[in-house]
Design goal:
This protein is α/β, with parallel strands linked by helices and 184 residues long. The protein has a single domain, classed as Rossmann fold (3-Layer(aba) Sandwich). Helix content is 21%, strand content 29%. The protein has a 6-stranded mixed sheet with strand order 4-3-2-5-6-7, with helices on both faces. It has a 3-stranded antiparallel sheet with strand order 1-9-8. It is globular. The two termini are 21 Å apart. Bound molecules: inosinic acid (IMP) and magnesium ion. The site of inosinic acid has 18 residues, from strand 5, helix 3 and strand 8.
Length: 184
C-alpha cells in the first residue's frame, strides 16, 4: 500500500507544534504555581503531546495515563470503555487531562465525569486540537493548542488506522472516497 499517499498536506509542522507546546506549558506553569497538577495523558493519541507538554511545565507535576476505546463516536449511545485506569489517587488533587483531539466531546466528557467521582480539587482539560463539533458540546477545555476544521488528521502521536503516530508533523489524511474515518 502506498502509505505516503494516505497523507495530504502538513497542517502543523513539528516546529510549530513545539512552539505552541512551550506556550501551553508556560501558561499551565503560571496557572498551577503552588499546586502542581496530576497530568493525565489519554493513550495512545496524546502520548507524544503529554510527554512534551510535561517537559514544558516547570512544576513538580505527577504524570499518569488512562486508556479508553471509543465505540460509536458521534452517537449519543456510544460510551467509551476503560482499557487502563488512572493509577494515582485523585482525591483532593488538581487533575489536568491531556487529550489529542476534542471532536464530539464524548471521550472527554466521560473521562471528566469519571475523575470527578474521586472528589478531586479540580479537573481541567488540555487538548492539542479542537474540531468544530466541540463548540456545541459541554466540554470546555481550559487549554487548546489549535482549532482545526473537520478533517481527519494523523502524526505527532495521532493515528490513522494505527499508522503515522511516529511522524513529527501533523498531516491531513486523504480518506478513501466514500469511506468514513475509523474510530480509534
Ligand atoms: P470525541 O470523543 O468525539 O471528542 O473524539 C475524540 C477522540 O477521537 C480522540 O481521542 C481521537 O482519538 C479520536 N479522533 C478524532 N478525530 C481524529 C482524527 O482526526 N485523527 C485521529 N483520531 C481522531
Ligand atoms: Mg483518543
Amino acid at each position: 500500500m502506498a502509505l505516503r499517499q494516505e497523507l495530504a498536506r502538513v497542517l502543523f509542522p513539528g516546529e510549530r507544534i513545539a512552539e505552541r507546546v512551550r506556550q501551553l506549558g508556560a501558561e499551565i506553569t503560571r496557572d498551577y504555581r503552588g499546586r502542581p497538577p496530576v497530568v493525565v495523558g489519554v493513550l495512545k493519541g496524546a502520548a507524544a503531546f503529554t510527554v512534551d507538554l510535561g517537559r514544558a511545565i516547570d512544576l513538580p507535576i505527577t504524570m499518569d495515563w488512562v486508556a479508553v476505546s471509543t465505540y460509536g463516536r458521534g452517537s449519543t449511545t456510544g460510551e467509551p470503555r476503560l482499557l487502563k485506569d488512572i493509577d494515582e489517587d485523585l482525591t483532593g488533587r488538581d487533575v489536568l487531562l491531556v487529550e489529542d483531539i476534542l471532536d464530539t466531546g464524548t471521550t472527554l466528557a466521560w473521562l471528566m465525569a469519571r475523575c470527578r467521582e474521586h472528589a478531586p480539587a479540580s479537573v481541567h482539560c488540555c487538548v492539542l486540537l479542537r474540531k468544530p463539533h466541540a463548540v456545541t458540546k459541554p466540554v470546555v477545555p481550559r487549554y487548546v493548542g489549535f482549532d482545526i476544521s473537520q478533517h481527519w488528521v494523523a502524526g505527532y502521536g495521532i493515528d490513522y488506522a494505527e499508522r503515522h503516530r511516529n511522524l513529527r508533523d501533523i498531516h491531513e489524511v486523504r480518506l478513501p472516497a466514500a469511506v468514513s474515518a475509523p474510530s480509534s
